Amino acid sequence: MPWKPPVSNDPKCAVCNKTVYATEKIECLGKAYHKGCFKCTQCGLRLSMQTYKALGGILYCSPHYPQGKATAVAETQESKRLRQQSVRQSNVKYRETYEKEIKGHYTPTAEGLGPGDEAPPPNLPPAAAPAPPDPTPAPIHEEYTEPEPAAEPEPEPEPAEPEPEPEAAPEPEPEAEPEPEAAPEEPAAEGDGAKYIAQYDYTAADDDEVSFADGDVIINVKAVDEGWVTGTVERTGESGMLPSNYIEPA
Fold this sequence. Notes:
Strand order of the largest sheet: 8-7-6-5-9
Strand content: 15-25%
Largest sheet: 5 strands, antiparallel
Helix content: 10-25%
Number of strands: 9
Radius of gyration: 48 Å
Structural class: alpha+beta
Number of helices: 1
Shape: flat
Oligomer: single chain
């Protein structure tokens, strides 16, 4: 009986269709990927479970993720007919409400009487208007009393003279402390000497990466891998790896 190789239960990579072993496997969206194949389909940037974005089973980085756009819908004859029908239904509803709740209800006013009100008896003289008040105020009589003499203020006691304080003994002059020696300056990290400007925000996914914000200045930039460089964020002073497509020369 001829020898047959054992059947492997390891899954295939969704990108290169090669066997993915457990030490290099990344599972995402129900598929298995090599760590090197788990990257953006537009720029080839390596992704992680914290930085990837997917649309229709395709992997993207944040800058290249497709953004949805609103589309305008043209007005058709059917939409015009439905809009006109809605207006007609609103007019009919308003007419029914007017007939039931508003029309037929009469509110009596000063010029007329409502249904069921009794008419006043005929030939009644008009009511006499009340007499206006007398604008002249009545005189007020007050009794005059002599004011009491004001009491003389008591003289204030003279303040006592403060006792002289004993002179304090002169304090000994402190000895001058020796000035600390200046620490030697650390050599700057190697780089091409150019400055780069961050075009997007980035949050570090691993311990050897560095986070930065849009507009930060990156110095000491040095290429280390495909799509990755090392650099120092001038604002925070932190150094580490960062994606090269997130920065541009100043």
